[in-house]
C-alpha cells in the first residue's frame, strides 16, 4: 500500500492548522516533519515544541525526520511531544544499533535515513531492526530541490535486500517527488513518498494530494501485476 507523507517544511507556517487539515481530509497518510539543527544540515527549522503544539490538532501519523547531530539526546522529547516514528541519519549515529534500540524502547517506530551519496552497506546489518528506511533523493537541508535520478537504482537495491531477507520494512523516498517521477519511484520499490513543494506549493493542495496518490497507486498496481505474471507464468509452464 502506498502512503503519502506531505512535508511540513513546504507548508505556509502562518496557516499550519488549516493546511494540515486539508491534507488530512484529502487522504494523506503521514505528516513528515523535518527537524534540522543547522549543523548536520545547513538549515534550522523547529523542535519538539512545534510537534507538541500540532499533535492535538491532527490524527495523521507523525513521521519525524531528525536531521540533527546527537539524535539520542533529543529522541525522548520528540516522542513525548507526539511523534509516531523517529528517523535518524546513519551519518550521525556512530552506534546506530544502540540508537535504534533506544528509539524502540520509547515505544515508537524506528527508521534510518541515508543521504544520496551514502552506501546501503551502512545499514545492511541492522535492517531486521528497522520499521522503515528513508532514502534521500536530494541533499538534505532545503525544500524545493530537484530529484536525483540515480537514487532510483539505490531504491531498487534496497528493495531487493529487503525481499531477500523476507523483511517487512517500508521504503520511503524524500526529495523532489512530483507527478512526473512518482511512478518511477514506486516502480523502483518505494511505498512511502514524501512530497513538500508538490503538495503545499500547489495551487490546490487537496487536488495535489489526490493526484499524487492516484498516480502512485496506479504505478504500484501495474508493477505488482507484472511481478505476479513472472511467478504465474513459470508455474503454468511446469
From TrEMBL:
EC number assigned by the record: 5.1.3.1
A Pfam family the protein falls into: Ribul_P_3_epim
Residues engaged in binding a divalent metal cation: 32, 34, 65, 174
Name recorded for this polypeptide: Ribulose-phosphate 3-epimerase
Tree of life domain: Bacteria
Role played: Catalyzes the reversible epimerization of D-ribulose 5-phosphate to D-xylulose 5-phosphate.
Free-text comment on the cofactor: Binds 1 divalent metal cation per subunit.
Binding-site positions, substrate: 7, 65, 141-144, 174-176, 196-197
Record GO terms (molecular function): D-ribulose-phosphate 3-epimerase activity
The encoding gene: rpe
Keywords, in A-Z order: Carbohydrate metabolism, Isomerase, Metal-binding
InterPro entries per record: Aldolase_TIM (IPR013785), Ribul_P_3_epim (IPR026019), Ribul_P_3_epim-like (IPR000056), RibuloseP-bd_barrel (IPR011060)
Species of provenance: Dehalobacterium formicoaceticum
NCBIfam families, sorted: PRK05581.1-4, rpe
Amino acid at each position: 500500500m502506498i502512503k503519502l507523507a506531505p512535508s511540513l517544511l513546504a507548508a505556509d507556517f502562518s496557516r499550519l492548522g488549516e493546511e494540515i487539515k486539508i491534507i488530512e481530509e484529502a487522504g494523506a497518510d503521514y505528516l513528515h516533519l523535518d527537524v534540522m539543527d543547522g549543523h548536520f544540515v545547513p538549515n534550522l527549522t523547529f523542535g519538539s515544541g512545534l510537534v507538541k503544539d500540532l499533535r492535538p490538532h491532527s490524527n495523521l501519523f507523525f513521521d519525524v525526520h531528525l536531521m540533527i547531530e546527537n539524535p539520542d539526546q533529543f529522541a525522548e522529547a520528540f516522542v513525548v511531544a507526539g511523534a509516531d516514528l523517529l528517523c535518524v541519519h546513519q551519518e550521525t549515529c556512530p552506534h546506530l544499533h544502540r540508537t535504534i534500540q533506544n528509539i524502540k524502547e520509547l515505544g515508537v517506530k524506528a527508521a534510518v535515513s541515508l543521504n544520496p551519496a551514502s552506501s546501503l552497506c551502512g545499514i545492511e546489518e541492522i535492517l531486521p531492526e528497522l520499521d522503515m528506511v528513508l532514502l534521500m533523493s536530494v541533499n538534505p537541508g532545503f525544500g524545493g530541490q530537484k530529484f536525483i535520478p540515480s537514487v532510483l537504482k539505490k531504491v531498487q537495491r534496497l528493495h531487493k535486500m529487503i525481499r531477500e531477507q523476507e523483511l517487512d520494512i517500508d521504503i520511503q523516498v524524500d526529495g523532489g517527488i512530483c507527478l512526473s517521477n512518482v511512478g518511477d519511484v514506486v516502480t523502483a520499490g518505494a511505498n512511502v513518498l514524501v512530497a513538500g513543494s508538490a503538495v503545499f506549493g500547489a495551487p490546490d493542495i487537496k487536488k495535489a494530494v489526490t493526484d499524487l496518490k492516484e498516480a502512485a497507486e496506479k504505478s504500484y498496481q501495474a508493477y505488482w501485476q507484472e511481478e505476479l505474471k513472472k511467478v504465474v507464468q513459470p508455474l503454468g509452464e511446469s
